[in-house]
Design goal:
Layout lengths: L3 E6 L3 H12 L4 E7 L2 H11 L3 E4 L8 H11 L4 E6 L4 H9 L4 E4 L4 H12 L4 E2 L1 H12 L2 H8 L5 H12 L3 H8 L3 H15 L4 H10 L8
Helix pairs in contact: 2-3, 8-10, 9-10
Length: about 220
């Protein structure tokens, strides 16, 4: 894609200023708007239709969870990347359930934030590494549940690939782990998602969450 247009939603001006400095320094990114609360952000986002919204959770009035849910209905093409101080996995699960495409902590390094923006802008899902293992851990550790969750109609290879997709591994990493070619992994992944009626990794994680398989940490 071309320039990634980013909108900032955070009630702290110093945070927004720091984000603008970081993002506008990237040759393929631009900040197209900002707001200090959810209510003000909603109308502006509808007007400018950014590719990515960087969203805080705790804000006065309409909070990040409520705003993300509204955006999912009004502007489904806009990707929400949560940038929060909350390292509690309950917030991560809530944000994914209402449609966020990524979750990253405010103390994370700048280059990780830029990577997260690019990931969600291109349709991927980005999870804070320190939290992701807790969210997917229960799912990964229950092989019998995997079969039921992903559907008995999936082949063993398709389930192996999809498990690793949910864990956050790239196609290349999955290919190495399973001793397959990247093209073969892509084929298994596409077939599995088609059988499940899903179109993306983000949709797959929400599919898992909505069925209650990831509702506790391990």
């Amino acid at each position: 894609m071309g320039t990634v247009n980013v909108f900032l939603v955070d009630d702290h001006m110093v945070v927004r200023e720091g984000l603008k400095t970081l993002i506008t320094a990237q040759p393929d990114m631009a900040v197209v708007g900002e707001a200090g609360d959810g209510e003000a952000a909603l109308q502006q986002i509808q007007d400018c239709r950014p590719n990515v919204v960087i969203m805080d959770i705790s804000m006065p009035g309409v909070n990040g969870i409520q705003l993300t849910e509204q955006l999912r209905q009004i502007c489904p093409e806009v990707k929400v990347l949560v940038l929060s101080v909350h390292d509690d996995t309950s917030y991560l699960r809530q944000m994914l359930a209402v449609g966020a495409a990524g979750y990253i902590l405010k103390h994370t390094a700048a280059d990780a934030l830029i990577q997260a923006i690019r990931t969600v802008a291109t349709g991927g899902l980005y999870l804070e590494p320190s939290l992701a293992e807790h969210v997917v851990g229960r799912y990964v550790r229950r092989p019998a549940a995997v079969t039921e969750l992903l559907g008995a109609e999936l082949s063993e290879r398709e389930r192996e690939v999809v498990q690793r997709v949910v864990q956050g591994y790239s196609n290349k990493e999955i290919a190495t782990q399973l001793s397959l070619s990247v093209k073969t992994v892509e084929t298994y992944r596409a077939r599995a998602l088609e059988k499940l009626g899903l179109t993306s990794r983000a949709a797959l994680v929400r599919y898992v969450l909505e069925r209650g398989w990831l509702h506790t940490t391990v």
